[in-house]
Amino acid sequence: MAGDMKVLNALDSAKTQWYHFTAIIIAGMGFFTDAYDLFCISLVTKLLGRIYYHVDGSSKPGSLPPNVSAAVNGVAFCGTLAGQLFFGWLGDKMGRKKVYGMTLMLMCLCSIASGLSFSREPKTVMATLCFFRFWLGFGIGGDYPLSATIMSEYSNKKTRGAFIAAVFAMQGFGILGGGIFAIIISAVFQACFKAPAYQVDPLGSTVPQADYVWRIILMAGSLPALLSYYWRMKMPETARYTALVAKNVKQATADMVKVMQVNIGTEQKEPVVKSGKEFVPGYWFTVFLIDRIGRFTIQVIGFTMMTVFMFALAIPYHHWTLPGHHIGFVVLYSLTFFFANFGPNATTFVVPAEIFPARLRSTCHGISAACGKLGAMVGAFGFLYLAQPQDKSKADAGYPAGIGVRNSLIVLGVVNLLGLFFTFLVPESKGKSLEEMSRENENSEEGTEVENHSSDNRTVPV
After folding, report:
1. pLDDT at 64
2. Is 449 contained in some domain?
3. Cα separation of 153 and 233, whole Å?
4. Residue 264's pLDDT is what?
5. Whole-model pTM?
């Protein structure tokens, strides 16, 4: 064990260097792709409804039936949940690097296949689209535990949280990139293929070429994944997996010496970069603060503010529906999401990559991520039904009566409050090595020297 700890301690104390940023970009491009692929479908569902579910004589353009809309939007999330569990487990059995390549290729192939969904019959197109979207989600699911695990195992303990959070934050750029690309493609097709308004010509308002728009948007998700595949395959297996799981300390040392300047019994011969935090965009508050104030504090702040703002929206809900008050509603709603992303959305990605032992790290992160994805599915689709008016005659077509928006917001506020209470069971990993958190260093001499390093000594038994 002492031999294992030599290379691992060197990684923990290594200065921030270019390879850390290379790993962030490589793993981050995967998350960019994940977010693009998962959320771009919501940008094309209205178009799918107009193309495949047009009703002659209707005063409104066609739209997807509720069950079809739920399937098209939700099937990728089902695949993601399954992929998080499967690839998380496989990452601990076969190694992070091998499985990392599998997930990326699956994402690339299924992104392209989704855009090639065949037939002009609505049922056939939606069925094939859902089939490929499920397997796309399956590949995306594997990216969650593997990206977090790889980044945590490469990082030093002083900036580990910021590096993992930076990878996770790339999903924001993926969502933004998807929206921008969809606007550009739509504008190009609108300029090239003029069409009358729906009120003027209901059938002619949707030109045949519109069928290419949604396909191009979906297939474009394969491009960032393909661009990063070569570099992902060039990454060596993480030293922690090689040393602690594969039991090959010599190989772990050789791999790290090739890509990083770490001090393993010898002097450093190459310069390292100073910090790099100044290059992080200012709105990545979590990246800036997570290694300063800790994961626990950020999650408490996040859930607390989410609870406050959600109740501020829910209790006086009628006030926000009155003319002139909509801006206030949007501001509070935006702040709720700001603290969600600043708090639990980021910390629940970071912490599972830090607190479990190497032999179970990818599996346990996959389980944690799958629980989060299950909650997202219940919240997203449950809210669609719950938020319907209590009067069935006022509900949207195809939906049963619900409990109303106000009561639904109250339910979400209570869920946030429960999240705050459960946060007090989460251990703090700020400033600790991965082995210290998982107690994998208890039998080493080095481990005894850092027993009381942090003021918060809560750890997770293995």
Report:
1. 87
2. no
3. 17
4. 54
5. 0.81
